[in-house]
Every structure is written in structure tokens, then in C-alpha cells.
Design brief:
heterodimer; A: mainly alpha; 12 helices; globular; B: 328 residues; Rossmann fold; Alpha-Beta Plaits; 6-stranded mixed beta sheet; 36% helix
């Protein structure tokens, strides 16, 4: 069984994203606006009191968060929603490939583009203007692996969420709800280590932490050896959980499929 | 060998009722009234290897729903399907290797990429070896002339160009069966002819079984020896096109007599006559009396100057079936 088909799918999807370069530019701009905003807000907070670990660590954390969220930027709800509403989902279903594989390699192709066009530029800007320390080669590799795991988890959660499209026929609100909750609980909006310890424990029990805070910890160099394995372990745990849930959701959704029109 | 076999196949959809206006809209959140609609009802179908079958019926008759069940996309509400020994829904991926499908109104091409990229992906998906791929693309190009827009992004193609691509894409892996759901919809005459030529060639030379749904009289006349007619989810005819036409058009004979002629009481099978001067148009039932018997009968009894047999017309038959069903 060839992997070439999956590669071909991801490659087409990558090439498709390059057709929407302008879209990448605007997303990159919004990331820059976020960075400026974070800088202003946290500098103000810093001047009015003390932040645990200091200002520079907060900024590094948030820049790393932007890198992760751009690399794992996933819009599966939109992808599935369009196909279900227009009925073109029949084109995926008529092929000898699983529906989830189709969507996954589609997203993977987009992700390769997003890393080059959004995540790395954000990192470069953080390093240039906010003195964010760029990790060394080995640590970068550990970080990349954690980002890849985060990508898979975000994908599975988004994919599970997108199965609701088969009932609701709308996708925008599903995607916005998911990404808002995800940003809030994952560490993209504010550093989770600043939470009071009770709340921090509560956040740790949710899957969202493994979507951004985990790779950020690796980026910051706070983990090594067994604690690094612990981070990967938690990420893999949630990937397995959502893999199972998403399979169940798909088998329900598939029976719900009616295929609109024509 | 029987390739496609469906038995007592039914598909029921739930249609949720939404009341009128804002009140109805709000109500639809709490009460979910629905009615059930039988898109396909108790359908039996057998298609042999190498056949080309036209599947016709008015809009909403259940043609597409049938195709979606045969391709494994939809699960039947009841009944059994076997495609080359496989259950297409339960064994969807295996079955998908054996089939090609065109959904005429739903393109599978990558909108922003050059045409060839969509084909390269399909080459990998269906595991077509390099030499075979090149050979087939050349062959498709001869009939469908794909090379003129091979490097252009799909969004720049005309409808006809896109449909030529869709068709080539569905035959790329030389599947056992190709399902074509309205392959000529909205196309001009020249493109339609090219597409029909291609389908015929693939069917006769590669023995690819073809099932096509269409509203196009030309498709039916040109391509299909056998047709299956569906009306409101039920199969109402399955047989040769000729037999259908003979059964549902009473045929017409235009006769010019010398002097007056009184034909109708004498020959059995004559349904009505219309006289204008010495010319009489005789409508007869070909099931009761053949055209030659009718003509020789007339020649025995009357002095005939000229006669002309009017050909049965497929279009009027199809129109009649769409409007009235098959009741006689």
C-alpha cells in the first residue's frame, strides 16, 4: 500500500494554499497585530506590578504560542462544511481512501505552507523585535515534534467538531466556538503558568493545554529528559482519545449523510 | 457475468417540516415534525458485464440516489446490493477501486491547480503505473483533446472542458464500472458528441460497464441499447429502447388514396384516422398489426398512390413517460 497517494494529496493541498498567498499575508499581519498588542498590554501590566518570571518570559511564551497556533491553524469545519452543504462530499466518498485521511492530508499540506508563510516569519519577528531567544538545533527538533503532535490533536478535535456539520449544516459558528475555547484554554491568549494553582490544575485536565502550552514549554527549555517525555505522553494520550471519539463521530455522521440535490 | 445486482433496494429520507414565518422557524428548534419520502422503492436491477445502461426518469425520480447507493456513498434503508461480489457500503474502499464516477454537477477537480495536478493525484490514488498512465492520457487526449488546457488552472476552463476532464478522470484507472450522473448536462452539441464517442469507445474496446443517468435524448439514442426508467422511486420499465418506443408510440402511416377510402373498420389495429382530402393519416398499434401487414392490407383493398411511414420518436416517448408515467 503506497504512501504516494497521501503525499500527492498533501502536495496538491500545499500548492492550493500557495494560490491564496494574500490570505497568508493577512493572517500573518493579524499575528503581528497580536504581538504588538501583547507587547503593549504586558508592558503596562509589568509597569504596575510584578509578573511571575518577568516580562521577557511572558513575551517569549506568547510569541511561541503564536508560532504554534499558526503552524497548527486548522479549518476542518470549513472544509467539511462546504462539502456537506454543496454535496461535493460525494467526490471524497467515491474514492478508495478514508474520509478522515482525505481531510488529514489536506490539512497537512496546508500546514506545511502555514509553517513557512506564517509560523517562521512570526518567530523571526519575535527574535528581531522582542528579543525572543531562539532555541538551539536539538531543542528546536524537540519543539518541532511537539508542534507536530499539537497539530494532530487540533486536527482531531476540529475533525470531531466538524462531524456536527452533518446535522447543523453550518460550519462557521462551530469553528469559531472551537477556536475561541481552544485559544482561551491552550495558552495562546495568556500564559497558563500565571494562573492560580487551583485553576492551573483544572486547565491541565483539559485537552487544550496539549495544543499550545505543551510545545511552548519545550520552546522555553523548561523541560528535558523525562519531563519532555511526559509532555509528549500527554499529547499522545489526548491524540488517542480524540482519535477514538472522531471515529465514532464519523460512523454516526456517515449514516446521517443525505447528500443535497442532484 | 452479472456485475451489478440490486434486490428490493429502498432508500427513505426524512424531510423535516419547517412551519411558516418566524414562528415556524422557532418552533422547528423544539418540535421536529418530519415526513418520510421514499426516494427509491423496492428496486431490482441486474446489469451484466460490458453493458451500457441508460437510467432515466424525471427530476427527483431517484436516479442519483440509486447511483449513490450503488457507489457505496449512501447506505440503503433496506435491500441488498452486490457489485462484483462486494457490498459497496460496507466495503466502500475496496469497491471504489473498481469504479469510476462522474457527478455532472459536482466537480472533483482542484479548482486552483492546473488540470494535470488533479490527474496526477488520481494516478496515485488508483495506483496506475507510469507507462499505463502516459498511454491512457494520450489515448484520452485523442478523443477528448485535453492537451489544449492541460496546464491551465481548472477555474479558467469552460464547462465543456471541465466535463471532458471529469470524464477522463473517471476512466483513468480503467475501472470495471463507470457511473455517469448526467455527464452531458449543459454542454453544446459538439462537446456532447465527443463525450459520447469517448464513452462508446471505452465501453466497446475496454469492456467497461457503463451506467448513465441523463435527460438528454441524444445520449439515450446514441449510447443505450438498454434503458431503465424510474418514476417516483419505482422502476417502471427495463428493456431495450426499441421495444419501449414501439410500445409507447402508436405509429403513424400517411397514405394518399385515389378516390375515397374508408379504412378504419376493416383492419384490426388501426386506432384512429385523420382525413384531409385524399390523404389519410392512420394511427395504428404496432403490437396488433405490423406496418407491412397494414400496408399490404391497404394495397389489397384500395388504390394507393403514395404512402409514408412516420418514424417513432424517442423524444416524444420520453416526454410522455416523464409526464404520465407508463400507464397505458
Amino acid at each position: 500500500m503506497g504512501l504516494k497517494k497521501y503525499y500527492a494529496l498533501a502536495r496538491n493541498s500545499f500548492r492550493e494554499s500557495t494560490a491564496y498567498r494574500l490570505d497568508a499575508v493577512t493572517t500573518l499581519l493579524s499575528s503581528i497585530v497580536f504581538l504588538v498588542l501583547y507587547f503593549a498590554v504586558w508592558t503596562a501590566i509589568d509597569s504596575s506590578g510584578e509578573i511571575d518570571g518577568g516580562l521577557s518570559q511572558v513575551l517569549t511564551y506568547l510569541v511561541a504560542g503564536q508560532v504554534v497556533s499558526n503552524a497548527a491553524f486548522i479549518q476542518t469545519e470549513k472544509f467539511v462544511g462546504e462539502r456537506v452543504r454543496k454535496g461535493t462530499v460525494v467526490n471524497e466518498l467515491k474514492r478508495p481512501l478514508g474520509f478522515m485521511s482525505h481531510v488529514y492530508f489536506h490539512e497537512l499540506g496546508h500546514a506545511v505552507f502555514n509553517i513557512g508563510a506564517k509560523a517562521l516569519p512570526v518567530l523571526a519577528m519575535g527574535a528581531l523585535f522582542l528579543d525572543v531567544p531562539v532555541p538551539g538545533p536539538l531543542q528546536s527538533l524537540y519543539f518541532a515534534l511537539s508542534v507536530f503532535l499539537a497539530f494532530n490533536l487540533v486536527f482531531l478535535v476540529a475533525y470531531t467538531n466538524s462531524m456536527l456539520v452533518f446535522w447543523t449544516k453550518v460550519d462557521w459558528s462551530l469553528r469559531m466556538t472551537r477556536s475561541t475555547v481552544q485559544n482561551l484554554f491552550s495558552g495562546v491568549l495568556f500564559p497558563l503558568y500565571l494562573l492560580p494553582s487551583g485553576l492551573e490544575t483544572a486547565f491541565s485536565l483539559l485537552p487544550f493545554r496539549a495544543m499550545a502550552d505543551s510545545p511552548i514549554q519545550v520552546f522555553l527549555g523548561n523541560v528535558s529528559g523525562t519531563s519532555l517525555l511526559g509532555i509528549y505522553g500527554i499529547q499522545i494520550f489526548w491524540i488517542i482519545v480524540f482519535f477514538v471519539i472522531s471515529r465514532l463521530a464519523w460512523s454516526k455522521a456517515r449514516n446521517k449523510l443525505t447528500v443535497q440535490g442532484g | 457475468m452479472t456485475l451489478i445486482e440490486a434486490e428490493n433496494l429502498s432508500k427513505t429520507f426524512r424531510i423535516y417540516n419547517q412551519g411558516e414565518g418566524v414562528k415556524g422557524y422557532l418552533k422547528s428548534f423544539v418540535s421536529r415534525d418530519y415526513r418520510e419520502v421514499d426516494a427509491v422503492e423496492d428496486l431490482d436491477l441486474e446489469i451484466e458485464e460490458g453493458e451500457m445502461v441508460g437510467y432515466i426518469g424525471s427530476n427527483g425520480a431517484g436516479k442519483s440516489t440509486t447511483v449513490k447507493m450503488l457507489t457505496g456513498i449512501l447506505e440503503p434503508s433496506s435491500g441488498r446490493i452486490e457489485i462484483d461480489g462486494l457490498d459497496p457500503h460496507a466495503q466502500r474502499k475496496r469497491n471504489a477501486m473498481n469504479i469510476g464516477v462522474v457527478f455532472g454537477q459536482k466537480t472533483q477537480l482542484w479548482w486552483d491547480l492546473p488540470v494535470k495536478e488533479s490527474f496526477r493525484l488520481l494516478k496515485e490514488i488508483y495506483e496506475v503505473p507510469d507507462e499505463k498512465y502516459d498511454e491512457r492520457i494520450d489515448r484520452f487526449d485523442d478523443v477528448l483533446q485535453l492537451s489544449e488546457f492541460w496546464d491551465q488552472p481548472v477555474r479558467k476552463l469552460s464547462l465543456g472542458q471541465k466535463m471532458r476532464c471529469e470524464l477522463a478522470a473517471s476512466f483513468l484507472h480503467y475501472p470495471k464500472i463507470v457511473y455517469l450522473d448526467e455527464p452531458t448536462i449543459g454542454l453544446d452539441v459538439a462537446v456532447k458528441e465527443r463525450i459520447r464517442e469517448f464513452i462508446k469507445e471505452m465501453n466497446s474496446e475496454e469492456e467497461i460497464t457503463v451506467m448513465l443517468t441523463t435527460h438528454d435524448i441524444g445520449d439515450i439514442e446514441d449510447l443505450c441499447e438498454r434503458i431503465v426508467v424510474l418514476d417516483e422511486g419505482k422502476k417502471i420499465y427495463d428493456g431495450s429502447l426499441d421495444a419501449l418506443v414501439n410500445r409507447f408510440t402508436s405509429r403513424r402511416l400517411l397514405v394518399e388514396f385515389r378516390g375515397d377510402a374508408d379504412v378504419y373498420p376493416e383492419i384490426e389495429g388501426v386506432l384512429e384516422t385523420e382525413e384531409s382530402g385524399s390523404e389519410v393519416e392512420i394511427v395504428f398499434d404496432p403490437g396488433t398489426v405490423s406496418a407491412s401487414d397494414l400496408i399490404s392490407g391497404l394495397l389489397e383493398r384500395h388504390e394507393v398512390v403514395d404512402f409514408q411511414l412516420k418514424e417513432p420518436d424517442v423524444e416524444s416517448v420520453v416526454k410522455k413517460i416523464y409526464n404520465e408515467g407508463l400507464e397505458e
